[in-house]
Amino acid sequence: MPETILLAHGSGGKLAHRLIEENILSDLSNPMLARMDDSAVMEFSGQLAFTTDSYVVSPIFFPGGDIGKLSVCGTTNDLAMSGARPLYLSLSFIIEEGFPLSDLKRILSSIRDTAREAGVQIVTGDTKVVNRGNADKLYINTAGIGRIKQGTNISGANIVPGDKIILSGSIGDHGIAIMSKREGLHFSTDLQSDCAPLCGMVANMIATGADIHALRDPTRGGVATTLNEMSEQSQVRIVIEEERIPVRDEVLGACEMLGFDPLYVANEGKLVAFVPSRDAQRVLDAMRRHPYGARAQVIGEVEQAETPCVVMKTVLGASRLVDMLVGDLLPRIC
Amino acid sequence: MCVAIPALIRSIDNDLAQVEIGGITQQTNLQLCPQAKVGDYVIVHTGYAISILDQEEARETLKLFESIARVAAEEENCR
Amino acid sequence: MKYVSEFRQGRLASGLIEKIKRSSHTPVNFMEFCGSHTVSIFRYGIRQVLPETVSTLSGPGCPICVTSNVDLDKAIALARTPNVIMASFGDVLRVPGSFTSLQAVRAEGADVRVIYSAIDALQIARDNPTRQVVLLGIGFETTAPTIAASIMQAKQEDLNNFSVLSWHKLSPPAMKSLLDAGDVAIDGLICPGHVSIITGSQAWEFIARDYGIPCVVAGFEPLDILQCVDMLVTQVENGEAKVEIAYTRGVQHAGNTVAQKLMKRVFEPCFAQWRGIGAIPGSGLKLREEFSKFDAEQVFDIAPGPTREPKGCICGEVLRGVKTPIDCPLFAGACTPENPVGACMVSSEGSCFTYYLYGGKNA
User: Fold this and answer.
1) Is the ipTM of this complex over 0.90?
2) What whole-number distance in Å separates Cα of residue C208 and Cα of residue C193?
């Protein structure tokens, strides 16, 4: 097997088959995938959630993860945010000619391990190879299907005044971890991306029997952008308290240095939950018992509003607006 | 543009210092603060230290704020 | 974060706020010269917690906002020159010049690179010996010494492909010009903390002495600004006008003499064009003859073409403190951070951007 990916690996011929059998199938094998039909066929009853995302993060290997882990976390997290238990993923690669096979193997191992943790199977996929220069190393697309248990109704449109807002942990870790590896920013840190599959923690939250109104994972644009989207969806005012939002020292330091606000920095392993006041404590407890929610905090609550907006109570007790991110802090962060 | 931040000097090699800002390490140029030494906090702007932070003054300022807060609390109690 | 977090404590802020409320009787208008102070004031909601007697007003201390279209057009023309690599601090890229921006010409193929430090620009020059690297030198006295240091370094290394487009501006002459214009009544000046690290608090003495206006040099954390306001209120109530330092952990009377010497060695004061204010004598810095090899204005023959000012934009009046962003007919309508018309809406320290970000359309 050649050491690098060649155009022929994407052509559907012998080399392509060997790539799939010796590398992709060997790592991700399950009965549905092993059948090697053009489509995966499955039976369902009840409500399904379906989502897709493409992953173009640079660098592809970063502290705390890689593009493979991200491609499983991102899509399964989107399913979990609808209250769905992730079941199946499709996995498509677009690979630049010359990409090292050893790197692809590393990424596949990552995908395998993360899929195992998330409890999903990769049941169908595709591999394309493009000429050198027509892609930056490797891009991944995953689409996912999950099952929503009967009675579960979780949506950004369900938020009502009085709801408490719970944040699962510290913000900005992913964005800063990525930035620390970018050329030209000149800082180093031990900070790791928070990239993680949240479906296990979400399952525990739902299992408490609490009436969870909405869930979302604040990725690009940070917590600020996500909360703005949700306030718009449900037409409410969201009020958060600055002092309650957990931010690691490293994120604070990097943000001060670069002139960023942690509220706008990307996360890949955090969620915000909107729950009625009476359910807030038990959901919080369930989150804190899970490794990905150990630093969970109630950070604010929802109010009635003429105009939907997000407002923050500062350390001085004053209120100021928290708008959506304008432009891009940094491109290709996920 | 006037963004500048306190950083702790961990080591110095000629004009260059390795500094720490809340868990992040960075290189900083000491040309504008040649008297800075390891253990000092410097105020860093675009990769250059522009001043040695006076830690004693910082402590005094915070003490002043504490006493103002105490007075304010006492006045509040008297009301 | 050491020496930052301690100055953001809400508990200590309450004490300062109470003290200001107790002492302030005379209605006053304090101007914060520096854009970074405006950002802090809005970010922490300081205006909301101050008593009604105290108002604050933003000044022209945003180096990107005060860069004229003439200068921007020059930079854009230079960026389009074959073989040039333009190295610039981030925000400058999005500022609209007469017809386009550096960001737009970069998308068209010009080599424009964002740098964090002048040191980065030197490295780009070393790494690209056959290309001409131009550093956009923008900023006040805080940044000018760092650019001067990079020019000295370039001289020592005898670099032949490094030059600086000097847009540096000096704060005291701008403040003097504002006060002489008499358009706006200022009862106290919140002096820029980091500029004053370099210049020393001495730079503001002429304001207290010749204009009778209290001056206090402030840091940028919420407690720093509240302490500054407290000290200004005290001066006003006592009928005093002097220069005091609130930011004692950073600023001294004489300033950073090493930095001042370096600036003097490399630069000399000159006329500078300030957006909205006009030409102010002695308010800019140009490279001395000895360093002409590193002066982009001398190295290149820059022909930017005719200048055009954006219609309806009142950035100039906002910068002078005569109007606030909300007074601008374009604010939050035709002019937003996504589609900026004027520089004040682009810079992360611009008044309009700050009002928009933290106050919204209903600021």
Assistant:
1) yes
2) 17
